[in-house]
Write a structure and sequence with these properties.
Tetracycline Repressor, domain 2, 0% strand, mainly alpha
């Protein structure tokens, strides 16, 4: 791995765990055993490093979502695959990361918002429409409205006023929100399928 990629990889790890604001270029350099000057050979400032880290994160998540859509046998299966990805992403993530991004790195935050309001909104709408066609979601569900509701609740666990990190785990809150959402739009056929996938998920968790 080239030094530039190693710097980015280390920054990604530290930003996720401790938040963006709490990590300085000095700390990244110290963790890597290199000088801060070496980092500045590849990144003009912290803002540029943050932008590359977040851009890579968004691209990776988009590729994973696209892959899950391809292999999912139905709309509910797609959501459960997404739950696995979210669990991996959120397990050790510091919830302050979005707040830090908004306050200190507005250009990168704008990139995140574009990803959220275009790509994520569209895949949520597509999933709802797929579920209705497969008779797994109720036919009266308005895909445009419900997708927007789900999109906003997706990032609710990052709100420290509602879910303080000393009391709630990000991944666990997100899992409850997804299940709450699914049960809210499911048909009877879909409800039974959700229970089936939940049991499979529990078995998988206990076998680890």
């Amino acid at each position: 791995m080239e030094i530039k990629d190693r710097i980015k990889h280390k920054a990604d790890d530290l930003f996720r765990r401790y938040g963006i604001r709490n990590i300085t270029m000095d700390e990244i350099a110290g963790q890597m055993g290199i000088s801060k000057k070496t980092i500045y050979l590849y990144y003009a400032d912290k803002d540029e490093l943050v932008d590359e880290v977040i851009t890579d994160m968004l691209q990776f998540n988009q590729l994973r979502c696209d892959s899950d859509r391809e292999i999912a046998v139905n709309a509910i299966h797609e959501i459960f695959l997404a739950m696995e990805m979210i669990k991996e992403m959120f397990e050790n993530m510091n919830p302050s990361i979005l707040y830090d991004l908004e306050k200190n790195h507005p250009n990168t935050f704008a990139r995140f918002l574009e990803h959220k309001n275009k790509y994520l909104l569209q895949i949520l709408k597509d999933n709802i429409e797929r579920g209705i066609k497969q008779k797994l979601y109720r036919p009266e569900v308005n895909a445009d409205i419900v997708a927007r509701i789900r999109l906003e609740t997706m990032f609710l666990p990052f709100n420290q006023e509602i879910f303080p990190k000393n009391k709630f785990r990000l991944a666990e809150v997100e899992r409850h929100l997804i299940e709450y959402y699914l049960f809210g739009i499911a048909s009877l056929k879909g409800y039974e399928l959700i229970l089936k996938y939940q049991k499979e998920q529990e078995k998988k968790a206990h076998s680890k």
